[in-house]
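Title: [Solved] Alpha/beta hydrolase 3D structure

Original question kept below for reference.
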Amino acid sequence: MREHDVISWDGTKIRTWQADGDGLPVLLCPGVGSGPESWPSLTDRGGLLSWYMRGTMGSDRPVDERNISLDDHVSDAIAVLDDAGVERCVVMGWSMGVTIAAELALRHPERVAGLLLVTGAPGDSFDGMLPLLPKNVRRFVGLTGTKLLQQAGPVLDKVLHRVPVTDLTTFLLRHSGVIKPSSDPKVVTNAVSRFLQHDWRWYFTLALALGETPRQDLSPIVCPVTLLAGRDDLLATTESMSGPVGALPQARLRVLPCSHYLPLEAPEVVSAELDLLLGRVHSVDFAIESRS
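Solution (posted by the thread starter after getting help):
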C-alpha cells in the first residue's frame, strides 16, 4: 500500500492511498473515517485509489472547518484522480461515501465509467437508517442521536481510545449483530484497532455535514450501476438504496445477508461484483465505439 499527500482546492492536505501493482483504475470514495482495512479483498488489487476524509488518518483538517460539505469531498476525489493521472474510471462508494460517488457521477459524468454503491443511500442518510423504526421518525432519531454523540466526543475519546482490541473483544463484536460472524477475525481486529482511535467529536461532525445532504436525483446517470445492500443493515435500508436507482437503465441490485459492514463480511462478493461491473463497462464502451 502506497500513501502520499495531495493538496485540495482550499489548500487542505489530503492523504491518499493506492494499492500496489498494475490494474484498471478504480476510485473508492470512503465511508466516514474508514481506510483500506475495510476492504480486505481489494487492497492487493492494482489500480485501486482512495483517500482519507478530511481530519482523519493523516489528512489534515481544513483551516476553515466548515469546508467538509459534499462539495469539498467531491473536490478531494477529483484531486486524487488528477494526481494519479486518471481521466475516467469505475467509482465505488461505501456508507456515506455512496453520496460522494453518486455526486461525482452527476457532476462529472465524463470521469465516471461505472458505479459500485455499497450499503449506503445516495443522500439523506439519516432517513435511510434504523429500519425497525417507523419511517416518519427515522431521520429525527438518527440525526438527534448523531448530534448527541458529537457532543459526547471527548468522553468517547477517553473510553474508546483505551479499549483493548483482543481476540475476545473481536469475538464479542462479531457476535453482537454489529458485524456478522462471517467476517474474518484478523481483518476485523485490524479495522477496529484503527477505527477506535478517531477524534470522535470530529468524526460525528463529518457524519452530520455529509449525512444531511438531501436525497440525490440520480436519473441523469446512464453508466452501469451496481448496488450491494445488506439485508440486516441498520444504517442504510435496502429501500433507501434501491429507490433512487430503480429506474436507471443499467442498474443491478444484489441483497446479501449482511450488515452495514458488508465489505468485511462478504469480501469475495465485493471483488466478484467489481469484476462484473468492469466487464459491463467494457461492453458498453465497446458498443459505443462500434457505433461511432
